[in-house]
Amino acid sequence: MLTDILIQGIVVGAGWGLIAIAFGLITRVVGVFHIALGGLYGLGAYLYLGASRDFGLPMAIAWLAAVLISAIVGVLIDELVYQRITGLHGRRRQTSKLVAEAGPFVASLGVLIVLDSVVLLFYGATPVGGHRPEWGVLDILGARMSVWDLFKVAISLASVVALAWWLSSTKSGYAARALGESPEGASVVGINERSIRRILFAVTGAIAAVAGVMAMLSSPMVPGSGINVVLYAALMTLIFPNARIEAWWLASIMLGVLYTGAAVLYNSGMAEIVAQTVLLSTLVVVRIFVPQYQKARRTSAASKLALQAQKFSEAEVAK
Amino acid sequence: MIEYWMTAIAFGMIFASLAMSYNLSAGSVGMLSMVHGALFGLGAYTYALLGVKIGSGASFLPLLVLAFVIAAAVGILISIVMMWLPSEFVLLVTFSIALIFTAVLYTATPLTNGAAGIPGIPIPAVFGIEIFDEASVLIMCTALALFTLVACWIIGRYPLGMAARMVRDDPMAAEGLGISYRAVSAFHFSVAGGLAAMAGAVFAGTVLYVDPHAFTIHEAILIMSMLAIGGMGNVYGAFFGGLLISLLPEFIGLLNFSSDMSAGIERLIYGVLLIAIMLVRPEGAFPERRVVIAQHHGGTK
To answer: Can you say how many angstroms the Cα of residue B261 is from the centroid of all Cα atoms in its chain?
Structure first.
């Protein structure tokens, strides 16, 4: 039973981990609580359903279509809403401090509501689910794990590894980190904020859709179910705001195991209470009693880029 | 037909009260939270559980006061936790508290009867008069809205309200002037919670049945939308936002769509309204009136 809980917990946590890294990246780089990711999670899932059930597309094509459309919607949310509210796109409106602080969050809630309502209009409130692929079952330490569940964990892990590589080894990943640490510094070294944001919102929109489709194929879903998942992600990234994205993913896995354990032992309502309470108490304890935990562990990507720019200009002068 | 609209306006008054009470914490003192819907639910369940236990609507007014006291006490506890956290965390932490509250309502079946809810809530009686027909319900809900409006207006107009606005706009300067940030915030948050609970008790006394569906996180989002659309910091804006958003489903209902379709259109409209207001008029339809001290030739007016 313990192995079953562990395996199912890892599978559940792998889905949440994707949303956690997407939410955490946006919060860290752009500084917006992108609650609308919950809407993209639902949108991706229902787009998949529409493409596979209504248009009869094969699973891989339907999944790809859902991911691509969600990525485009993600970019549009930033271009049409966040950038205009934060003043990146044109002149920022003069508002009070309260409205300036709350504006992006409230707008993000608005986007979440719009995305959920579009899904509700097309598919209604009745729970629906896609056809779960029957790829066989594996025996792991006496517990049964379907190949589909293994595939989900593998997809999630591959996404984390790819994102970690992008952040640590590519120029645009460096630029994203620099933007998160110091937008002014990033601007000085010539980083185009808008293009980095486009990449980021496209990637996170796509990730949300991947997670949504995985959830849809595992159990029936109703419009608006993304909000709980994005809240788990948000709390996890707030507990470890300066952690590496792999740490967010691992924390999600641990939460998934805890949630599954509580659900198996009690029920899903109790699992919700246990998971939220553990997250909340950890957040409060970490923030109140362990301030040194918050010290930044990340390397200063902005200063690295500035150093690179300086070396480059020196080399040019030497030539 | 007139009875239908009287009931709709009565519900509008309850939600307008809720939006005005939310304005007291979010608009006046800047404590944006997502827990207001849960405090509304706490008030509703307080009246429902105790009303059913007592078995008489005569206890309505004392239970209204009790709901206020319980929610105010809970509000103080939450505000203490909120003050320890950075402001950007507060929204998400209270989001989580609201989800826990709903999950508890669903799970604590021996106490709350779970998803089945609590039927048979006694009809409220005030000074021996039973409130059961549409007209008396409308009067009760309007009285609640007026009470909340006057309470918020009085708190906002006197030094405590001014201290709250100072804490919201410049906490450092407020502390420098000897204004206790914690005391002012806790007071506003607890009174706002208490007023929300009163609205909840009146809601339970109106529908005579409560279940957890009415107090989910979507209600918290709805309350925030009401305030954002009406205008943060302005009690009249909150009243307008509450009334407008709560009457929206009634107007959509006139179009005879299916229930899912109506729910979808309703959410779509207020989602779009929320985005549009943040883009076009972020201070809301009725922005807070600010006191401007203009300097003229070295003097002040």
So the answer is: 27
